[in-house]
Write a structure and sequence with these properties.
3-stranded antiparallel sheet; Arc Repressor Mutant, subunit A; DNA-binding; 6 helices; globular; homodimer; Dna Ligase, domain 1; alpha+beta
DNA sequence: GTGAGTGCAAATGCTTTGCATGATG
DNA sequence: CATCATGCAAAGCATTTGCACTCAC
């Protein structure tokens, strides 16, 4: 069995290859900057904002504008997901690779903690509901807002 | 059986009473401006942005700042829900009264149409998942992004 | 009367855009 | 070598904040 770290590296590499294919299919250019941004974004350990990603890249010469433009492409390619957490005014993204797909979020409204859970069954239910409306489901957002165990106790 | 319109008026009136109680319980003041904004927000036919609501109120002298401040209170009182639709950069709200509670959204990524569906069963599933993590679920966001029937057909 | 609420305008922060320059196919 | 991508800086919005004035309690 491979180490978890190796798996992740492989996963990111595969995703980058996928991204290259996506760019070519759309007649877009495969540039160093795009690959740089994509790699950093896909290697992020969890949720991140565009500004945070930029912070991790600006020393390498990437501009905010390009970070935003590339995040959009990554989202369209399905490699990154834009998600919505409580209390944040800006957009938050997360890498959306194999092992990370099909999860939902439980966001604590008190401490901001985010708990991830497997959401395949709920997504399946949502898919059926969508079909009943003639709607073709491509992506599911399943999220709960409330209090995590700790805050539940500390707030009484 | 009462007319639908009458029901809605009653519903808004009840919600306003609830809001007053909420304000008093929190030691906040019941002001004309707050009630004005609340009434307009709760009477909105569907989803709206803070700016749209302000547009419907500015002639009556309410300022943007107060609209934002009051929307926050309404959300805390559970009378308005902040929801997340595709493609919008700003926050979108919706009245969240009796008949409208417990629904999810299917958002078409092509035309922007929003289909609402009853989500009680899915919410129940989410609640169980949350409990399993010791999380106390207060609000559920269940949403699908994809293509509506029309766009599915027209895009081939 | 007193403290909270409000309007106003300025500030902030995130995101997008226009344009000249540079890299890719 | 024609185009598309990039960086930079400026513009655009949505949202928040500071402050003097006003109103609910």
């Amino acid at each position: 069995m491979r180490l978890k770290e190796e798996q992740e590296i492989t996963e990111v590499a595969e995703a980058l290859a996928h991204f290259e294919g996506f760019l070519r299919r759309r007649g877009l250019k495969v540039t160093k900057t795009r690959l740089l941004i994509a790699e950093r974004a896909l290697s992020m350990p969890g949720h991140f904002s565009a500004t945070e990603l930029w912070g991790a890249l600006r020393e390498q010469g990437a501009s905010v504008a390009t970070v935003y433009r590339t995040l959009e492409l990554l989202a369209e390619a399905g490699l990154v997901r834009r998600c919505i957490l409580a209390g944040t005014s800006g957009a938050i993204y997360e890498p959306y690779l194999g092992r990370r797909r099909h999860h939902g979020h439980l966001v604590c409204r008190n401490c901001g903690r985010v708990i991830e859970f497997r959401s395949q069954d709920l997504e399946e239910g949502l898919r059926r509901t969508a079909e009943a409306h003639g709607f073709c489901l491509e992506e599911a957002v399943i999220q709960g807002i409330g209090l995590c165990r700790q805050c539940r106790e500390s707030l009484g």
